[in-house]
Amino acid sequence: MAQGELRKRNIQFSGELVDYICEHCQGDRMVVVSEIAKLDLYVGENRKATLEAAEECIGSTTESTLDDICTSVAEGSQRGIERHLRRALQQGVVPVVVLRAVQRHYTRLARVSTMAGKGVSQEQAIGALRPPVFWKQKPAFTRAASRWSQASRRAKIPAALHILYEAEIACKTTGVDAELMCSRALTQLAAM
Asked: pTM here?
């Protein structure tokens, strides 16, 4: 979807740029179109979009709120989860999008943890992630990676992902209150 929109606007791009756009737009087509329109204005007559250009102009308070939720969950901050989840829901973010953002966050933590377990330094492991960790989120992600790379917590990452997947399935199929299910899953993870 992002590639098609970039081509339609005659913007030259890399696969890394497309990954970045998809990661930061949470798969929402309207958000992708809107953010690429901003990128189009940003690149101007140059018509070549770089990852750095995307980092400068793509982003929103929704993205920031989702990042804040991921950080709060990974750091075990119940208060942060409540505050940021409430804000995300008020902005119209649906619970499944929140759950998927946290799933991606934990999947990335698992990758770093696995690489660290194979002797790769944490800094190198984080640097190898694609799309790269956004520079504003790097300190919080590094803290979370340190915390979740400890052997006792590393073993809990599959269980954490299972909780998130089950919550997503329940939100989509059971008719339960999706906001409550999302909140419960995030609280459960934070307690880990």
From this structure: 0.66
